[in-house]
Known about the structure:
Layout: E1 2-3, H1 10-15, E2 25-28, H2 35-41, E3 45-48, H3 55-64, E4 70-72, E5 78-83, H4 85-94, E6 98-109, E7 112-125, E8 129-131, E9 137-139, E10 144-153, H5 162-175, H6 180-192, H7 196-209, H8 217-230, H9 234-243, H10 245-248, H11 252-268, H12 270-273, H13 277-290, E11 298-299, H14 305-317, H15 321-332, H16 337-346
Parallel strand pairs: 1-2, 2-3, 6-10
Antiparallel strand pairs: 4-7, 5-10, 6-7, 7-11, 8-9
Helix pairs in contact: 5-6, 6-7, 6-8, 7-8, 8-9, 8-11, 9-11, 11-13, 13-14, 14-15, 15-16
Amino acid sequence: MIVKNEEQNLSKCLDSIHDIVNEIVIVDTGSTDNTKKIAKKYGAKIFDFTWNNNFADARNFSLDQSQSKWNLVLDADEYIEKINLVEFNNFLKNEIAIGKIQINSKFLQEGEERFSRNYVSRLFPRDIRYEGRIHEQLISELPRRELEITVNHTGYFLNNKASRNIPLLIKELGESPNDPYYLFQLGKEYQINKDFNLSKKYLDICYQVLKGNEQFYQSAVICYLHTLKYLEEFNRAFLILNENIERLDKRSDFHFIKALLLMDLIFKDTKTYSHLLTEIESCYLRCIEIGENNSDDIVSGTGNFMAFYNLGVYYETTNQFTKALEFYKLSANYKYMPAIKRLEKIK
Length: 347
């Protein structure tokens, strides 16, 4: 781990992992609180590193201190929610691969608590290292395998890290101006920061230079569509949608953002676009058909409870009240508060 001023989070993280690992290596980049004191309680080996605005350097320094054959990397604002220890130990004994773990990140969007889910390479043999100032990536040709390890991440909830992340991403782009990964990440940061014009600027370029075989291609397209939605650039958004129908057809969040774009377009000019209303229903039904079991890097709910709820809204506004109640109830079964509140109001 690399840490700085994490006294609020560190205990929860280490409680979730200290019985599973052989050693805990913590590299501190300048804490002024009780972070080191807390780490010592867990028997951690603590090292100091002078922060140089380069996450890969700090990560690699921490890996250099490890004495183990395998390394599991966590951040202090993460904690293990679930782990299949039999699979975990078999992987360490029998595999020559990189383990990807599921990370559920809590964030605030449109006034609601939401979770994104993606698989990140975090368990790997001792000789592998990182590159990249920010959103650092492992340098390795080893195969990657998803493991039954679920980690909850709270770092982006009510925390704006744009002031730290954006300058580092701009530096990376200064050295590699057409790198689609950093263009995507910078566009995403500006979107989180609600600077949609700058988000579009970088996502425009990102989309132009994407080849289509990138691991993050689908996520970049979804991000781009959300920025275009906020800016009400419908012509561009539907062009992007049409260009990616085949490639993204099996992602629930692709059909979810299409439904949101259709809804905004109809509300903006009902007279011209009201004939598209039934397409909204089709989009949400497709979301439910796809579900979320096989999807990586999506917002949780786009394949179930949020799609159920939005279908309820659709049916209620089109005077199909029996169907509306049915889908509100399906959404409420997931404890989705907007659905619960809507049912209470209807009663």
